[in-house]
Write a structure and sequence with these properties.
The protein has 299 residues and is an alpha/beta fold. It has two domains: 12-148, CheA-289, Domain 4 (OB fold (Dihydrolipoamide Acetyltransferase, E2P)); 153-298, Rossmann fold, CATH 3.40.50.2300. It is 28% helix and 28% strand. It has nine helices and 15 strands. The strands form three sheets. The protein has a five-stranded mixed sheet with strand order 8-1-2-10-9, with no helix packed on it. β13, α7 and β14 form a beta-alpha-beta unit. It starts with 11 loop residues before the first strand and ends with a helix. Residues 1-8 have low confidence and may be disordered.
């Protein structure tokens, strides 16, 4: 039996983008928080990029987070009292300038609710919860990054041979991610090479889909899941799969935007076969091909 490695809890960093509304991101993304420091202009940068900060020999772009998500931009009068949240996401160090830091709080990620459908598809919110009876919106940093630093189109479309394509096509593949931008990237990658797949938007739905498929005699062969998800996260999903005799033949590929060796180590501890720390289509496809090899060896 696989031993659970999900005990390392991820908290939430609460901060202010407006006077009244609290926002949050998971603490695993946060490297450190520093007071505002002088920035150097970056020519031809995105309108929300205020400039570059140099911190301990590392230069990183700093973004006006309020402006980036559609709120009132920071004014020159208030900027000196703001804080930079330094994040490590998608193998990129980025600073987000915010109006204020509230606190770091423990979080039961099972209590995170999906954002209301009324918010639409392009809102930068991946979940909502309450802390001390106040509504907190969990920001979708991946979507934010995709708007400000668009991915290289070449990284979104894999290259594979006809033989490799035919190896993958018969397999039943399940993609799981709560982020709309991540689901779109995954879908585009497989659509571009004509590989069929199924999609789930959260871990619990994915688990139920796999159980129904196994009971119907048509089990999934490959699971590709995000790690950071409200409710049943990727670690817990992998753990549930590996500890279910009807599911544990599934090849598990976990991916995360966190550039963290800890994330990769935990993924392997819960039974994942692969752990990818950035979306890169060719890396994903080669991981799937390794899953196909394992599947062929067990049939």
């Amino acid at each position: 039996m696989i031993k659970s490695a999900t005990n390392q809890s991820q908290g939430m960093l609460l901060f202010q983008l407006t006077q009244n509304q609290s926002f949050a991101i998971g603490t695993l993304k946060v490297k450190e928080i520093v007071p505002y420091t002088k920035l150097t202009a970056i020519p031809h940068s995105h309108p929300t990029v205020l400039g570059a900060a140099s911190l301990r020999g590392v230069t990183l772009p700093v973004i006006d987070m309020a402006k980036a998500v559609g709120y009132l931009p920071l004014s020159k009068d208030e900027i000196n009292n703001c804080y930079i949240i330094i994040t490590d996401c998608q193998r990129k160090l980025v600073g987000f300038l915010v109006r204020g830091i509230n606190k770091i709080t423990e979080c039961n990620w099972h209590d995170i609710d999906a954002p209301p459908a009324s918010l639409g598809n392009n809102v930068f919110v991946t979940g909502v919860t309450r802390v001390e009876d106040k509504l907190v919106q969990l920001l979708d940093v991946e979507l934010l990054m995709s708007k400000i630093f668009p991915a290289d189109p070449n990284s979104l479309h894999p290259v594979l041979t006809d033989v490799e394509r035919e190896i993958l096509r018969p397999l039943k593949i399940l993609l799981v991610d709560d982020s709309a931008v991540a689901r779109r990237q995954l879908s585009q990658a497989l659509d571009s090479i004509s590989i069929p797949y199924f999609i789930a938007t959260n871990g619990l739905d994915a688990l139920n889909m796999m159980k129904r498929a196994a009971e119907g005699g048509e089990p999934f062969d490959i699971l590709v899941s995000d790690i950071e998800m409200p409710g049943l996260d990727g670690y817990e999903l992998a753990f549930e799969v590996q500890n279910n005799d009807k599911l544990n033949t599934i090849y598990i590929i976990l991916h995360t935007s966190l550039s963290s060796e800890i994330s990769v180590s935990q993924a392997h501890q819960v039974g994942a076969h692969e752990a990818l720390t950035k979306f890169e289509a060719n890396e994903l496809i080669h991981a799937m091909l390794r899953g196909a090899e394992q599947h062929a060896a067990t049939v």
